Amino acid sequence: MKQPDCFVIAHDTSRVVVDCIASLKLHSWSFTVVPAVDGWKITQEDWDNIGIKMSDQGKMPHRPGAQGCWHSHFKLWKQSMDTNSSMVILEHDAVVKDPWPEDLNIEPSIIKLYTTAHCKVNPITGSWSKGGHAYTLTPEQANKLIAHAKIVGAVAADKQIGSKACSWNFYQKDLVQLNPNRGRSTTSARRL
Fold first, then answer.
1. How would CATH label the architecture of 5-178?
2. What is the DSSP string of 93-131?
3. pTM to 2 decimals?
């Protein structure tokens, strides 16, 4: 399959997005950088406007960065549905290792474009893998993710991409990896 549109979620303060962009260009991926949602600016009205409540389970209510991350992914899920187009979603700290594999079929399930993440099980979202830095998405899969979030509430983006919402698999190798120079997570707990 031809490479779907690739969207890179990035804050304007990201130090490592330049590495992501360089790797995309090196391996001839077409892409668009989209601005990340600033979690410190999210209000209850933002949640009300999308008709999804933030789950009170887990740490996300105390992590504005995680809320911004979730909203950034949600905007692309909604775009996939609204435009009826498949896509690849990367976070700013992803580094592409190879050209797009023309034989990759993304229709049956979301494909995490790596193999190196630890898997866990969450009673709300099912089996999930740590990290949401690189995955494929079809409009049907986006619809399932959003529908499930409307039922169970929003949880961290990587947990939201769980087996109870939509089937997913790892790719056969690390087509994309996390940048080793990425630094600390921006989804840490709010400091008082």
1. Alpha-Beta Complex (3.90)
2. TEEE-S---TT---SSSEEES-S-PPEEEETTTEEEES-
3. 0.93
